[in-house]
Sequence to fold (329 residues):
Amino acid sequence: MGGDYGPSETVPAAAQALSLLPHLNLLLFGNIEMCAEALDAYGLSHHPNVSFVHTTQSVSMAESPAFALRHQPDSSMRRAIEAVAGAQADACVSAGNTGALMAIAKHILKVIPGVDRPALVSCVPTIAGTRSVLLDLGANVNCEAENLRQFAVLGGVVAEEVLGLRHPRIALLNVGSEANKGNIPVKSAAELLAATPGLNYCGYIEGDALFQGIADVIVCDGFVGNIALKTAEGMVRLLSSASHQQMKGWAGWIQSWLTRFFKRRLSHLNPDQYNGASLLGLRGIVIKSHGRAERSAFTNAILQAAVEVERQLPARIAERIDALPLNRR
Fold:
């Protein structure tokens, strides 16, 4: 029911995910009256791998997390997370209200021992065609140094288990690459990361290096991370819009050639391919899809959930957290 489009995009995305992963089983939570037409249209009404759970409430994008947590016990979002907590589902995917999703998931699933706050993490493309892990993307706008160190560990597990990297390079996003740059939490986090065994900490990187692939895990607080991600998405939309504004004559020919060139070289930068941010640090898998995600992007969020289930990501994180002295100040 969540996101800007609701069932008109999430239902066909579910059908597309099933076509790509025939072994997948889906529990769909929402208002059956609002979903029935889409379910029929995409052949999911009687699909053997699909079950529908009717809910009487849904969390709007403008709802406060506290209200959703306390006053909407039968929301589709809460019921889906409860299914993960009760082992009826292995993961939850939602395009709904981020704050409410975080609050409900943290309340119901709880955090892994040793993790103070869950972080919102996603993989971002690089100019080399690889991917880097970026966190936090908005779950925690104010962070202490210890939070940033924990985020580094969480991101490192994603880089190893999802991206298949050994000894991933971990960097802090900062206003400069010099050791004396940055605010107190970032400087203190740099000291903690350098002193944490098992982490391949490589120092600071600046915003212009975010997509250059010089770090495998890029750590920042949620205020900085959310702005960085939204700025990058806006730039992609700007370039896409400019490519559709046709010029005439020689200028138009050059523009056409450049458009084809960049589409070939930069097709891997399409943000739809990277939709699906994980709420890491919880005792279950929760994937947050972008609210503006259309069906192809939402499908990728479902596929991301399947990968994390296969890799048993919460268990891998718990093992790593337990092995490191993260809570020693």
